[in-house]
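Our preliminary data section would be incomplete without showing what the modeling component actually yields. Below, a chain of 464 amino acids is followed by its predicted structure, encoded as tokens that our downstream tools consume directly.
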Amino acid sequence: MALYSAAAAVLEGLERGDGGVKTLVYNSRFPHVRQLYALVSETLRYSPVLEKLLAGAALLQAEKKLPPQLAKVLVYDLLFGKGLKCGGRWKVLARRHRARLEAELARLKVQQKVSRNEDLLAPAQAASPGASQVPRYVRVNTLKTCVDDVIDFFKRQGYSYLGKAASVEELRALSGKKFLLDLHLPELLVFPTQTDFHDNLLYTSGHIILQDKASCLPAFLLSPAASSHVIDACAAPGNKTSHLAALLKNKGQIFAFDVDAKRLATMNTMLMRAGVTAFQLAQQDFLAVDPADPKYRKVTYILLDPSCSGSGMVNRLPREEAAPSAERLQALAAFQRKALSHALSFPALWRLVYSTCSLHQEENEDVVHAVLQEKGSAFRLVNAFPSWPCRGLAAFPGAECCLRASPAATLTHGFFVAVLERHGEGAAAPSSLPAAAGESPQHGAGPEPGAAPRKRKRKKQRVK
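Predicted structure:
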């Protein structure tokens, strides 16, 4: 049963936008990763068919305690895989409904005029558009090493280093064992798509983090000043948290929240592997955190990456499942507005980054606009990353200050980022955040956006 539980957990993580299939499988701590990866991949491939079977057989209505993702995994192996390899109540449950599920499968084949299970699959449903063109991004973990040493390590492994990229087209042209330094982010290396580093020494030791470029933008643009107190409001799986720690050089304090105990346990393991020390994890709904608690009186930076539709994630779900219903979008947007408004109520807050891996205006520009109308006298949008090619949709005046990302335009997952800063009496003058890798974010002892950038010293821990 452990295999099915682990597969269901991976599917739930994909639905929340926690990461790609490989990352979630390798972070699952399930001992047989190849077996788990195969089951998850095949369940995803058959996902549109499984949705129809579950609905037609009314399985979830009949078994209200059966989690939907676990139902998918069990039904996949029961009807399309090698048969259930578990015992206990879930096997009894699946077999109890087997005749109804098989009848529904037969009806579906007749309806679609096919004879084989494979013929129920449409090739266009098998993968998200853009998945094949997004490169493998590798963030160098500066808590343990530096960019130069990681480059030297890969060169010793037979990779050819081509220097810093000058354009997105150079990233698109990567092939074989060649890699580049990203043109925008100073600690991000770029390899050809499908390059796998999950078994590489640098990954298993925490010297590198496998993280999409767009996912690196929130922490980079938050740019917390040295020794700051920072909140990561919806933190799991923890890649952004480890990025914040690297920017802080493990000084200051990070408060990280998530409601799921298992996700926090996995996150704790990952953060320890990455060498993160100055953090506190809390199994708590961020909306239930009291901004007036003295513990958070020094919090000046907040990274808010709330639950979203995940519609921007590639290598993820079949296309049918990437389009949430209008009702689900409304529910997500309502939660996101509450979370953003709540985050802006922390008394010492100076800068906040709001981000999603969603393509939908309802979860992005509309959320920011609604909250700015509520809090606009105290906070304003910052023109973040002026040279970034994709800007926010023209949903309201100033929305171009926001960033968007996409597989086609930026060779990343689909993403949205907005940077808000406090303004008004006693606040600092307006600022723009960095435009290129050569212009690192502004760091200082406090909120001084007009100050000159400080050069960050690199650790010289050799990677042997």
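The mean pLDDT is 85. Residues 79 and 280 are 45 Å apart (CA to CA). Preliminary results of this kind motivate Aim 1 of the renewal.
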